[in-house]
Design goal:
The complex is a heterodimer of chains A (109) and B (167). With 109 residues, chain A is mostly helical. Chain A contains 4 helices and no strands. The chains are: A mainly alpha (109), B mainly alpha (167).
């Protein structure tokens, strides 16, 4: 295990922030450009994961275990969110026989 | 090995997460998302957060991805039910996302933190240490999260249930 943990020594914290920012932005762009509700859900998962990675990196950087406990809570929350969200998508598909979010514009304006 | 392993895995995670939002077929998107989560697991192992690596592997790659694939198979989406947005909306979304990225990077530059991440205490991410923190400092949030999971389960069953004909 020592050889694996040696690998991380020397990566600047900046690069972790950069990586998380890029993946978070990919998630935001995915939400903005796609119309399939399931792909939008996956983009939200990407954003959650980017935040998880950054929390872990900061937790190691500051030598504080609380960050990793937060990541654990976020994972529990993501599991709950995905279960409810996919149930909603199944219900939408049953009513409109499509997962296109442009059909769901009744609440627009 | 050393530092370059991090950059290789980082490149892979960015590449596969781009593929998630760029592929047309939703099934391919889910498969790319699984690979992306696997690269995140490698990141956790590199940070010596072994508990999170295992939980990420089991919960995300196991439970959540199976749920996604299951729903995709259940919905039986055909090719023409996957419309893309117009080019104008795509370009506007891309510009908005890049503006967000530039803002994040700009604010990061002004922080001036470039110290390397050094593992001071190698035991920090192990199950023993995290369990002690979780069950002493964060006991109440832990119990509340169990209620959250229970409500999510009840809600999912209630929403996905077929409505009776009387309505």
């Amino acid at each position: 295990m020592d050889t694996v943990t040696q690998a991380i020594q020397g990566v600047p914290l900046n690069h972790y922030i950069l990586l998380s920012a890029v993946i978070f932005t990919i998630g935001v762009i995915g939400v903005l450009i796609r119309r399939n509700a399931i792909i939008i859900f996956m983009s939200i998962e990407l954003m959650l994961n980017a935040v998880n990675l950054l929390l872990t990196a900061f937790s190691v950087y500051h030598n504080d275990a609380s960050g990793q406990v937060f990541v654990f809570f976020i994972m529990a929350l993501a599991a709950a969110e995905v279960a409810v969200g996919l149930a909603i998508i199944v219900m939408i598909f049953r009513n409109t026989s499509s997962t296109d979010i442009n059909i769901l514009n009744k609440l627009k304006w | 090995m050393s530092v370059s392993l991090f950059y290789l895995v980082a490149f892979l995670s960015i590449f596969f997460s781009l593929m998630v939002i760029l592929t047309k077929n939703p099934i391919h998107s889910v498969l790319y998302l699984i690979v992306t989560f696997f690269t995140f697991t490698i990141h956790y192992i590199l940070l010596n957060a072994q508990f999170l690596a295992i939980v990420n592997f089991i919960v995300y790659m196991g439970a959540i991805m199976v749920l996604f694939l299951f729903v995709l198979m259940l919905l039986n989406l055909d090719k023409d039910s996957e419309p893309m947005k117009s080019n104008f909306v795509k370009i506007a979304g891309l510009i908005a996302g890049l503006c967000l990225l530039i803002t994040l990077i700009g604010s990061m530059k002004s922080l001036n933190i470039s110290d390397p991440v050094i593992l001071k205490d190698p035991d920090i991410g192990l199950v023993k240490n995290l369990g002690k923190v979780l069950f002493s400092e964060f006991l109440l949030p832990f119990e509340i999260s169990s209620i959250l999971l229970l409500t999510a389960m009840v809600g999912a069953v209630l929403i996905a249930k077929r409505e009776p004909k009387t309505t």
